[in-house]
Amino acid sequence: MVRSEFGPHLMLDCRGCNLEKISNLEFVFKFMNELPDRIGMTKITQPYVFPYEGLIPEDRGITGTVIIAESHITFHSFVDKDYFFFDVFSCKHFDVDAVAKIVTETFEVQHVERHEATRGLDFPRSLEERVPLVATV
User: Fold this and answer.
1) Residue 28 CA to chain centroid, in angstroms?
2) pLDDT tens digit string along 5-27?
3) For residues 52 and 67, what is the distance between their CA atoms, to the nearest angstrom?
C-alpha cells in the first residue's frame, strides 16, 4: 500500500505592497485568471474577485478566489493596512518557490511571511488505500 500526502499548501502574508495593485479589481482579476496556467494548474472557474467593504471600514480591500481542478487559489487584501494574504492549495505538487516569487514580484512585496503545510498526510490515493477511521479520545 503506497500512500502519500495530498499536496502542498502555500500561504503568504504580505506587507509593504504596491497599494495601487492590491486595490485594483481588474489587476487582481487578471492576475488570478492567468496564474493557474503559469503554475501548471487547471482552472475550472473564472476568478470570483470583488471589492470588500465590511463592518470595519479600514478592512476594505479586494477578495478573490479561483477554483482549480487541483483545489484553490485565494487572495485577500487590506488596502489601508498595506497587507494581503495569498494561498495556493493543490493536490498536485508545484514549485512553491516559483509561486512565492511570482506573487511577491507582481505585487512588489517588501516583506513576506511564508508558511507551508503538507496536507492530507494519510490521504488515500485509491479506494484500496483507505484506512478505517479509529476513534481517538
Assistant:
1) 13
2) 677 899 999 999 999 999 999 99
3) 19
Beta carbons within 8 Å of 31's beta carbon, 6+ residues apart: 75, 106
In contact, 3 and 70? CB cutoff 8 Å: no
Rounded CA gap, 79 and 56, in Å?
12
**What are the tens digits of pLDDT across the range 54-77?**
889 899 999 999 999 989 999 999
Is the four-CA dihedral 48, 120, 87, 80 of positive or negative sign?
A: positive
Element (H, E) at 10: strand 7-15
What are 19's three cell numbers?
Answer: 497599494
Taking the model in full, what pTM does it have? Answer: 0.84
- Please list, in sequence order, all residues whose beta carbon lies within 8 angstroms of the beta carbon of residue 54, skipping any fewer than 6 positions away: 60
Q: How far is CA 67 from the centre of its chain?
A: 10
